[in-house]
Amino acid sequence: MIIFGTKTNGDNNTPQQPRRRGGCLRGCLWAFLIYLVLSALMGALFGSMFSSSTEVALEDKTVYRLDLEGTLVEQGAPADPWAEVMKQIPSNGFISSDETVGLDQILANIRLAKEDDRILGIYLHGGELAAGQASAKEIREALIDFKTSGKWIVAFADSYTATNYYIASVADRICLSKTGTLAWNGLSAQKMYYTRALEKIGVEMQILKVGTFKSAVEPFFMTEMSEADRLQTETYLNGIWENLVAGVAKSRNLTSYKLNQAADLYMSLQPEESYIAQGLIDTLVYEFEMDSVLRVYAGSKDYHKINTSDLASVRRSEPKAKDEVAVLYAEGEITDSEGDGIVGTELVKTIRKIAKEDDVKALVLRVNSPGGSADASEQIWGALQMVRSKGIPVVVSMGDLAASGGYYISCGADYIYAEPTTITGSIGIFGTVPNFNTLRNKVGLDIDGVTTNRHSDLSSNAVYKGLNPEERDLMQKMVERGYDLFTSRCAAGRHMPQDSIKAIGEGRVWLGKDAKRLGLVDAMGNIDNAVEKAAALAHLDSYKISYYPEVKDPIEEMLESLLQGNPTEEEKLIIKLRNFCQRPRVMALMPEVKIR
After folding, report:
1. CA atoms within 13 A on the CB side of 371
2. Domain total of the chain
């Protein structure tokens, strides 16, 4: 496949052990303890279930506690009672909790906090939220807009990543734990290369690709960055860092030069007092002292706190308009028919459902994807063109990533917004075929068979014997046809000559600000700008917003998880390897890079 004890009771021959005194009593005690634990857990579960089904009342003198922890996703889920139950179980490192928080919920909550007089201010708590640069910028800009109301923001964390500090830098006061750290050290981007490891076990990756900069496959046949990949990675990494520095400099009234000097000192290893000396932090405090700080800002000792999930459950006034602007979230790697990200068949089904809704007059596609299956990308592209053919304008809002297949599904829109630090482009495709010939010979496996036609055994020979020149040429031409189709879609959508698209394609990754200059996107903006543009294109004076896909109820997800069972780490690895080997024939996927 191309990628882009001994039983004694009931045994008359085995003497049974003598019954021990007190065994029955101990068994009863253990059963009673288990009963107590299960009762407590079930009570917490059902209590959470019933409380999550009701709206949360917002009290006067409330502070919105925005926790910058967990993993940021595009679309937040309703309050999860199962997560509340798990929090009450001591994990001791055996149970990992990977909480997610929705960007949509955070942005909506910040807007509500700005407009509702019952909310006094925002308390940014924690500083290790796993978020992309474009998403961080959206949160930061929402907080800056919040401050135009005259309300305050206070931040505290045990430690800050650079991205989270970028968000928190808008606060009126930034506090850090007295033994905390601030990772203001600059950024680095690294890749893992597997070539030498594959050689040792006798596996060769046969590469077919189009695009000088299409570096997603380089880890399988190189041991270091190509010059082309180094150039594009340096370009977008420096662009991201410049954005972080510029934002912090403006909020903290510092110069870019001083912030870079501080980064050169590797602030994570500097004493806490130096954070204040450098102007990065205002106060070093214990966390329990933050209550006194918040009382001063709230002007009352009787203030209340509300978290993100509870504030998201507060009733909002909804417009009574009939017309709708549909917002469709497309997040994750693009697959054909199964997976955790963008599943092509499911997304197409949702797009067709939206197109049949009489009240939907415009569609906003929110894309946060590194790409994936070229075929699934084409299917999604086609479904979106069907929507446009019905007179429904389509506007794309790019998040952290809209690269390769992520750009493929975006390019046909009527209008495209990106953030300056959105990673996009990567217009190119590839295929990879693992060759196990050397490994097969090492372990002594032989293959023989019969065929009816010249290339009947190509797919098996490619894997177990390796591609011959003619077979490689056939596959390379297939990849090139895929690239020609990809660039033709981009050319038609962007109203540019196909040769111009190919000149800026070649698999090269661009930041959103550069993509705007090159004509790959129309404007810099966020999802709110995209909704407003879609409404304008549909000539809507008043409208309401509907969101797709529908978020699963947490109880339903919990029951599915219990019935299916959670895979072990070993099973997850096997699934990952299986999915890698079962990838579609042609992939439109950007390289995986870890930015720290």
Report:
1. 31
2. 2
| Domain span holding position 331 | 324-432+482-589
Token pair of 433 as six digits: 């075929």
Query: Is the peptide bond prior to 549 cis by the omega test (within 30 degrees of 0)?
Result: yes
Q: Is residue 75 domain-shared with residue 107, that is, in the same domain?
A: yes
Could you give the C-alpha distances from 12 to 16, 17, 19, in angstroms and in order? 9, 13, 17
Please return the burial class of 130, using the count of CB atoms within 10 Å of its CB with bins 0-12, 13-18 and 19+. Answer: middle
The one-letter amino acid code at 538 reads A
Exposed, middle or buried by CB within 10 Å (0-12, 13-18, 19+), for 211? buried
Q: What confidence tens digit (pLDDT) does each residue in 316-365 have?
A: 887 888 999 999 999 999 999 888 899 999 999 999 999 999 999 999 99
Q: Are residues 283 and 374 in the same domain?
A: no
Residues pairing with 391 in the sheet:
none
Q: Which of 394, 416, 412, 423 is nearest to 487 (CA)?
A: 412
CB of 140 closer than 8 Å to CB of 128 = no
Burial category of 307 from C-beta neighbours within 10 Å (exposed 0-12, middle 13-18, buried 19 and up): middle
pLDDT at 97: 47
Global confidence as pTM: 0.83
Tell me: do 428 and 536 sit in the same domain: yes
